[in-house]
Amino acid sequence: MGRSGGTRKPLIFWAAGVVAYMIAVFHRQSLGVTGIDASARFGVGATGLSVLAMVQLLVYAAMQIPVGVLVDRLGSKRMLLAGASVMALGQLVFALATNLPGAAAGRILIGCGDAMTFISVIRIVSVWFPPRRNPVIVQVTGLLGQLGAVASAVPLITSLHANGWTPTFLAAAALGVVSLIVVGAALRDRPPETETAAPAMRAAWAEPGTRLGMWTHAATQSSAAAFTILWGYPFLVQGEGLTPRTAGLLLTTITVLSMFCGPLLGFLAGRFPLRRSWMVLTVIGSTAGAWTLVLLWPAPVPLWLLVLLMVTLATNGPGSMIGFDYARTFNPAERIGVATGIVNGGGFVASMSVIALIGVSMDLQGDYRWAFAVQYPVWILGAVQVLRYRTRARRLPRLRPATSNA
Length: 406
What we know:
It comes from Planotetraspora mira. Pfam families: MFS_1. The protein contains 19 helices and no strands. The chain is mainly α. The chain has helices at about 10-30, 35-40, 45-75, 75-95, 100-115, 120-130, 135-145, 145-150, 155-165, 165-185, 195-205, 210-240, 245-270, 275-295, 305-315, 315-330, 335-365, 370, 375-395.
């Protein structure tokens, strides 16, 4: 399976990366289900909560290309160890914070460490597994990573209400030790020969397939990310009158269902590479359609329709993973890190923008329905750009014939 000729070592290396990624997702999502408690602890409103999520995602997005370059040059192991350490420090700061600046400092550190993690795991897949298996393995990586989101929903809410703020987030910080032990003991890495940073970035950005992946990630990820990272829990509890437990279960539903969607989309992307962009457009259209039903339905929205929305949002994460398949398909191995960083950064810039616009809208008029309508321009722009760069990408000869079409 791996380029070394064996099967066991690549699987061990990949598994170590996945453990680190699961813990990173837990850290990333930990603000979303604590939004109401965070608002009370730090004395902030909707815009203040948006600031916390936005600075985390802003740092995450800004770090993508620098981290991509470093991953290509230093390898995955060093970057995963650095990321785990920085995220653990961030949760420690967040646990002890009592005001908005302190909380923001914690979320900045979490965003920084988180940025080092996923790209490093994607590089493990690209280096150690053959191209034809990459789409499925990347989807399974995302699937397993979502177990961290499961742990950040109901269990974190339960701990927060039972043990309080500081003990809960101190325990979250301790998870960083698990990442350090697993990655340090199980992962071995070898940095490839690479281009210098500037030419690699220019070449990756000039490739239409990279930008196709970036817009794919932006248009498919942003809705579910905004919902799970910050605004879903307040919307369900305050906007729709659900109990905290029911809201937590609905958020968990997104994660669980995405774990089934991921391998299916990965298989389809590998089996029908010419249809990848149609899969992306289907995810965008179905997400916009489900939200339209929810936003137009007279209050309160029935539970079955909210469940339908969760089902649709569950396709967003797996759909966004197709963007990384484009990065791999259209770029050589020596710049896979920086290409992946461009794709990932675009998705999180879009997510950060949606989160911020929802917060501003809530403070201006206080209606969740109008606030969530800010997503429509992102979907429209994303769909147009996917179609645009699909056309450009198809005109060029490909690097990886096995998955050569957009």
